[in-house]
Design brief:
It is a single chain. The chain is an alpha+beta fold and 156 residues long. The chain is built from three helices and nine strands, in the order E-H-E-E-H-E-E-E-E-E-E-H. It has two domains: 83 residues, Aspartate carbamoyltransferase regulatory subunit, N-terminal domain (Alpha-Beta Plaits, 2-Layer Sandwich), CATH 3.30.70.140; 53 residues, Aspartate carbamoyltransferase regulatory subunit, C-terminal domain (SH3 type barrels). The strands form two sheets. A five-stranded antiparallel beta sheet has the order 2-3-1-4-5, with helices on one face. A four-stranded antiparallel beta sheet has the order 6-7-8-9. Helix 1 packs antiparallel against helix 2. The radius of gyration is 17 Å and the shape is elongated.
């Protein structure tokens, strides 16, 4: 019996998000609004072996570089991910995602009585990061702790 191997094609230009927490790639696609049209090539590998983290997901996006706001959102879902910017088939920049100390407008407070959840109050949700991995944040207004599982639910 011959073993076959599936290889993922290299991209010429774009972004590779590696070391995503296993089974979180679909959340990241939702954050990035992908696939956005029929011309954007997106490659997803899910639950693959990783020497560093055991199991991981990988997302490759051709001809698109993620922006700062998108990186902050990805950090909430996959705090150990790495971002590789590719140009002419070569990685020109490789960074670990860094969860900012303060998060604004990305998630909602889970406390229904929080002022940020009142429709007649135009207040932007703000959260302070209490723990980076796994992510735990605290609402700036009502001080409710939002744990990883509650964060994940908002991206489903």
């Amino acid at each position: 019996m011959v073993k076959s191997e599936l290889k993922i094609k290299a991209i010429e230009n774009g972004t590779v998000i590696d070391h995503i927490t296993a089974n979180k790639a679909l959340h990241i696609l939702k954050i990035l609004g992908l696939p956005d049209d029929e011309t954007t090539n997106v490659t997803v590998a899910m639950n693959v072996s990783s020497g560093q983290i055991g199991r991981k997901d990988i997302v490759k996006i051709e001809n698109r570089e993620v922006d700062h706001n998108e990186l902050n959102q990805i950090a909430l879902i996959a705090p150990k991910a790495t971002i590789n910017i590719i140009r002419d088939f070569k990685p020109i920049k490789k960074d670990k995602i860094v969860l900012p100390k303060k998060i604004t407008s990305i998630i909602k407070c889970t406390n229904p009585k929080c002022i940020t959840n009142f429709e007649n109050e135009p207040i932007t949700p703000i959260f302070n990061v209490v723990k980076e991995y796994p992510p735990v944040v605290r609402c700036h207004y009502c001080e409710k702790l939002i744990k990883t599982e509650d964060i994940d639910k908002q991206f489903e």
